[in-house]
Each structure stands twice: as structure tokens, then as C-alpha cells.
From TrEMBL:
Membrane topology, from the record: Multi-pass membrane protein
Organism name: Phytoactinopolyspora halophila
Obligatory cofactor(s): heme
GO terms of molecular function: metal ion binding; oxidoreductase activity; quinol-cytochrome-c reductase activity
Protein name in the entry: Cytochrome bc1 complex cytochrome b subunit
Organism superkingdom: Bacteria
């Protein structure tokens, strides 16, 4: 049975095709877009689950923008006082700001308003969590090395902006919880010597809480910071597109190529499907897991402080620092400087961000390596860098736990001072312990992989020699797997330059080279060297000599090894 297309439909379709062709031809003749599209649509991207962390951040940002646009239609960024007469009965007749009243209206009277509020909040949490995990992946794998130092700074700035915008949005409802958070920020501002009071008056529009802070935070939240985030995301993607993507070591991969799939249609199709998975996951959480029920806290009153609640996780470490800091205070030229507030609220975040920003150059100085790198490091092959990262994570987690010391004291039924004292000691002792344990684990994994490359995988089969000796037979690794285990450079421990030249003239750079050599020893002195070619040849020759004792059997590899070879 044949089908035919009616003449009028066929003619209209041909007309549409010819019209589209003319438009494409017109554009191509003027900007030669076809060559650009052909070149970029076939750009190769590697395929690994860890690369999806950045995509999760990007897709959650899209959901933040979409849900935020919806909320702007009803939210009123005003601190004008009104008497609530809305649908939420327990709050009727209570004086509150228009901002808080409009938040209650969004939650109880606007169709889908509560869902959109929760989507906006959960998307923000996922966005910052995905960015944090993505930055950790970049750090642990050395993806910040040349030529990607600029993108590391862009990513770090994006993380700071995400945290800042999350806090400004968290403060907009003008409920008791968000007001308490603003009060803590105001305390940190007042702790700044000399100019703290003036900054507080300027930001809040007068004596705290002022009358303008919600309006100003709203402008920052929906215009300034989102604009910067979108601009930096664009810059980040442009740099990523211009520089070829990093990839994990493996067979067929080198610093001069990229092994993966073309952007169109394979990568674009997979990314599109993953985007809807991220959307669905966030929407499912928003519909089933309640977050920030502002109606339970009531409108903000500067004379009251909430108890038993903590800020969002990405701000909790600052609150924890304030709770753990001893009550230190100094006086300089008649000015009292409360170190108990200034250090955790201002100095600590500044030191952390500065160290993170300059770390790529610190490692470059230590290693003396200024080459371009497109192959990622396996974290175990850089034990000191990995240990530093884990120590920082432990430091952050202890501060984060300290932000809820009252909660843990209540649950465990012990004095809150005991919890705080334990966390103070943990903040000092736990990061070095985590560093040492992580380094030992990395070195142990290196040693294990070295043995596996040299002697193969344990088979569980026992072989008896003519002399009666029992030994376990080892199966040789698949070549692709073995290559992945040795596809990293041997670290070179730098030695200091001579203190004097052959004529006895002192070397002016001796102390500098000595410091660099000590750092190099700290980074690489304990690293386990991978097998050399001579060692591999000797072991291979030894295996050939004992092969007859295994009845001439040939090790059988599973289908996954074959598939891996076909993939490469």
C-alpha cells in the first residue's frame, strides 16, 4: 500500500525548504557560519561521570532563573509595615513587613507558589553543592594547571557569587530566621576597625535594621549578582570551548588529542536528557521535602533571636567559626577590636579564598612545571595535594558541625560548652590527622598498583612447583588497564642550587632554591615510583619461565576488557 502527499502540501513544504535555504545561504555568505558550525558541532568531548558535576550546576542555574522569574511577579521587596489579613489564619492581625506578607501570599494563596519557592531554594542548594563538588574534582585531578588557571579563578568567583546570592535570597522573606542571619552579618561588619559603623549605616540605610536593606538585597539578588554569574558562566564555557577538554589517562589518550564523542548529536543528546533528569530530581525534592517554612518563624523582630535553627549549609561554616572562636578582644589607639568576630567573619574567609586562588601558582613554583597539561592526575598519584584537599574538607566540616553545636548538645543531652570545647580541639587536630591518613592511603594505593602492574592480578589459583612450593598464580593485566595505571609522569624531587659557584662566589638565589627544594621534598619525596621498562621486562621474562608449570593454560579475560579495548 503506497501513500502519496497531496500536491498543495508538497508544494508548501518545498516552498518552506527553499525559503529556509535562502535564509541560511544569506547568513552564510556574510559570516561564513557553515564552516564555523561544522567545526564546532563536531568538537569532541570526553565521557566520564565526574564531568557531569559542572553540568548539574549549569542545569540547576537554569531552574533557579526560571523559578526566580516566577517569584518576582508576587514578591514585594518592601519593609513597609502592614497588618496581615491573608489566608494563613495563625498570622492574621499580626504586624509585619510587606516582604514577609508577600512571602506568605506566595506560599498559601498563589497557585504553585509554594512549589516554586521550594524549587528556587532547592535549586540554589544543588547549584552551590554541584559547584563545590566540581571545584573539588578540578583540585584533586589537577585540572587547574596551565593553561586553565584563569578558569580556576572564574570557577572560584562563581562559587563565591553563588554563596552571596544564596544568602541575599535567603534574607529576603524578612522572617525571624533570615533576620537573625542578617544580624550576624551586621555584627561582622561592625567588627571591621574604623569603618565598620559607617559601612553598617550605609548598607542598612540607618541604624539596624533600617528601612532599605530588603530593597537593596532584592536589587542585588535579581540583577547584580545574577548578571555577574551569567557573564562568568559564559566566560567559563568560552574558555572551556577554546581550550580542549581535560581527560582521564588511558589507552590512546595523550596531551595532544581528545578521545570522546562529538558535541552534536551525541553529546548534545546526552546532555539534554541529563538536564531533564536534574530538573525532575529537583522538582521531586521540592514537592516532597519541605524547606524553610517561614510561617513557623514569624516576622522579624530585632529583639528576638531564633534558637535551634541554622543557616543553609554553605553559610554554616561562618556561623560555626563564630561559635568556636574564643572571646578575644584587643584595644588599639582607643579602638576596641573584637577578634572573636573579626577573625571568623572576615579574616578566615579571606585567607581561605586567597589560598585557593593562588594555589595553582604555588604548585607550579613547587614543581617547576610550566608546561600545558590536558591529562588529569589520578588523586592517589599526587598524595600531598590530595591530602591537603581532604584536610581542608575536614576543617570545613568541623566548622559546619559547630554551626549546630546547640542542636547536638540538645540531642546528645550534654552541655553545649562540652560540644564547643571538643570541636575547638577537633578544628586544630583533625585536619593534620586527616592529612596524614590520606597520604598513607594514597601511598598504599600506589604501592598496590605498582605490584599489580609488575606481577598481575591475583587469580586465586594455587600452583605447586616440583619442589613442593605453593604459590598463587597471577594473571597479567589487560594492556589497556595496565597503561592506565602507569600513564603518569614520575615526579622529580628538586634539589637546591649550590651555595657557591666554582669560584666560591655566594649564590644569591641559594635560600630561595633551598625553600623550593624543601617544598619539593614535602610534595614528592615519599611518592612510589612506577615500574621502569627494565623492571617490566624482567618480570615478563620471569613469567615466561614459570608459564609451563601452569599446564599451558591461557588466562581468559571478561567481556568488559574486550569492550574497553573496542571503546578505545
Amino acid at each position: 500500500m503506497s501513500s502519496t502527499t497531496p500536491p498543495d502540501v508538497s508544494a508548501s513544504r518545498n516552498t518552506a525548504i527553499r525559503g529556509a535555504g535562502k535564509v541560511v545561504g544569506f547568513v552564510d555568505e556574510r559570516i561564513t557560519s557553515s564552516n564555523w558550525l561544522k567545526r564546532n558541532l563536531r568538537k569532541i568531548f570526553p565521557d566520564h561521570w565526574s564531568f557531569l558535576l559542572g553540568e548539574i550546576a549549569l542545569f540547576s542555574l537554569i531552574l533557579i532563573i526560571l523559578s526566580g522569574v516566577f517569584l518576582t511577579f508576587w514578591f514585594k521587596p518592601s519593609m513597609a509595615h502592614i497588618t496581615y489579613e491573608g489566608a494563613y489564619v495563625p498570622m492574621r492581625g499580626i504586624a509585619m513587613s510587606e516582604a514577609y506578607a508577600s512571602t506568605l501570599e506566595l506560599s498559601f494563596e498563589v497557585r504553585g507558589g509554594l512549589l516554586m519557592r521550594q524549587v528556587h531554594h532547592w535549586s540554589t542548594l544543588v547549584f552551590i553543592a554541584a559547584m563545590s563538588a566540581h571545584m573539588l574534582r578540578v583540585f584533586f585531578t589537577g585540572a587547574f594547571r596551565k593553561p586553565r588557571e584563569l578558569n580556576w579563578l572564574v570557577g572560584l568567583t562563581l562559587l563565591v557569587l553563588g554563596v552571596a546570592n544564596g544568602f541575599t535570597g535567603y534574607s529576603l522573606p524578612d522572617d525571624l530566621l533570615s533576620g537573625t542571619g542578617l544580624r550576624i552579618i551586621e555584627g561582622g561588619i561592625l567588627a571591621i576597625p574604623v569603618v565598620g559603623t559607617y559601612l553598617s549605616y550605609f548598607i542598612f540605610g540607618g541604624e539596624y535594621p533600617g528601612e532599605d536593606i530588603i530593597t537593596r538585597l532584592y536589587a542585588i539578588h535579581i540583577l547584580l549578582v545574577p548578571g555577574l554569574i551569567v557573564a562568568l558562566v559564559t566566560v567559563h564555557l568560552m574558555i572551556l570551548w577554546y581550550q580542549k577538554h581535560t581527560q582521564w589517562p588511558g589507552s590512546g589518550k595523550s596531551e595532544k588529542n581528545v578521545v570522546g564523542y562529538p558535541f552534536f548529536p551525541i553529546y548534545m543528546t546526552k546532555a539534554g536528557g541529563f538536564m531533564f533528569i536534574v530538573f525532575g530530581f529537583i522538582l521531586l525534592m521540592s514537592a516532597t521535602v519541605q524547606i524553610n517554612p517561614v510561617w513557623l518563624y514569624g516576622p522579624y523582630d530585632p529583639s528576638q533571636v531564633t534558637a535551634g535553627v541554622q543557616p543553609d549549609w554553605y553559610i554554616g561554616f561562618l556561623d560555626g567559626g563564630l561559635r568556636l572562636m574564643p572571646p578575644w578582644e584587643i584595644s588599639i589607639f582607643g579602638y576596641n577590636i573584637p577578634l572573636s568576630v573579626l577573625i571568623p567573619a572576615m579574616i578566615l574567609p579571606g585567607v581561605i579564598l586567597t589560598l585557593l586562588a593562588v594555589y595553582p601558582w604555588i604548585e607550579q613554583k613547587v614543581t617547576g612545571d610550566k608546561r600545558e597539561h590536558h591529562i588529569l592526575d589520578r588523586p592517589r598519584n599526587m598524595p600531598v595535594r590530595t591530602s591537603l584537599g581532604v584536610a581542608f574538607i575536614v576543617f570545613y566540616i568541623v566548622l559546619w558541625i559547630a554551626g549546630g553545636n546547640d542542636f547536638f548538645a540538645t540531642v546528645l543531652e550534654i552541655p553545649v560548652n562540652w560540644v564547643s570545647r571538643f570541636l575547638q580541639f577537633s578544628l586544630i587536630l583533625m585536619p593534620p590527622i586527616a592529612f596524614w591518613i590520606t597520604k598513607r592511603i594514597c601511598l598504599g594505593l600506589q604501592r598496590r598498583e605498582r605490584e599489580k602492574v609488575l606481577h598481575g592480578r591475583e587469580s586465586g589459583m594455587i600452583v605447586v612447583s616440583p619442589e613442593g612450593e605453593f604459590t598463587e598464580r597471577h594473571e597479567p593485566l589487560d594492556p589497556h588497564e595496565a597503561y592506565e595505571l602507569v600513564a603518569h609522569e614520575r615526579p622529580v624531587v628538586r634539589e637546591p642550587e649550590p651555595a657557591t659557584d666554582p669560584n666560591g662566589v655566594p649564590n644569591p638565589n641559594y635560600k630561595k632554591s633551598l625553600r623550593r627544594a624543601r617544598l619539593s621534598h614535602f610534595y614528592f619525596a615519599d611518592v612510589i615510583d612506577k615500574p621502569t621498562r627494565d623492571e617490566l621486562e624482567r618480570v615478563h621474562h620471569h613469567h615466561e619461565e614459570i608459564a609451563p608449570s601452569s599446564n599451558g593454560e591461557t588466562p581468559q579475560h571478561g567481556a568488559s576488557d574486550d569492550q574497553g579495548g573496542q571503546h578505545h
